[in-house]
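[job 4471] stage=fold_predict status=RUNNING
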Amino acid sequence: MKRLLGSVAILAVVMIASVVLVETEECNEHDLNDDTMIANYAAGRQLLRCVRTPKKCSRIRGTCINVAEDCAGKTIFNQCNNRHCTCCIKQECDRTPPKCSRAGGTCINIEDRCNGRRNDGLCNNQYCTCCIENQCLETPRKCSKEGGTCINVEDHCEGESNYDLCNNRHCTCCIENTCVQTRACSSNEGICIPKSDPCHGFSNDALCNNDHSYRAALAVQHPHHV
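[job 4471] inference complete, writing structure tokens
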């Protein structure tokens, strides 16, 4: 009886080893490494990550994802060169109904980042959500004393942004660039301007030394420039 049980145990070990070998060979077939795998915790096993999207999928604005992953749109299974992958065409939320716009929002895909509040019930699509951006109406003293104003992180800041000076993760302290004219710049017939502005001449950062000098440039106009 002991010999029979021992034989059964050996047979079970051999079968398990065979399954592991088959799965390993299947992974090697796709030349995988650890960072090309994703964990499917629900199934308790690792799944292939679809790292390549062929043109037949990208041409229809899709991206190849594993068949077990969620797609915020529609899927087409014959557009990826791997049986583990499907072409995910993300839903474009280009129409915002009045009930969302009245709330000050815009419809975006549920997978897109929203710098504000989300309301899934204000867009007429299960893959879209109404993103109501934070208006950043209040500017705390720690931002204002630096000469800044709190704005939404998606808004453009003509100057320096400091994300630690506003009391909201969707806001940043925008310290607008004030380029103080210096004697050194004036003596070279130049003006101090933000680095983001075009210079119709040549620039010299060292001649503008105000508090935001790292964002200022010397704009020396050519004498005969029209």
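[job 4471] summary: The CA atoms of residues 37 and 49 lie 5 Å apart.
[job 4471] exit 0
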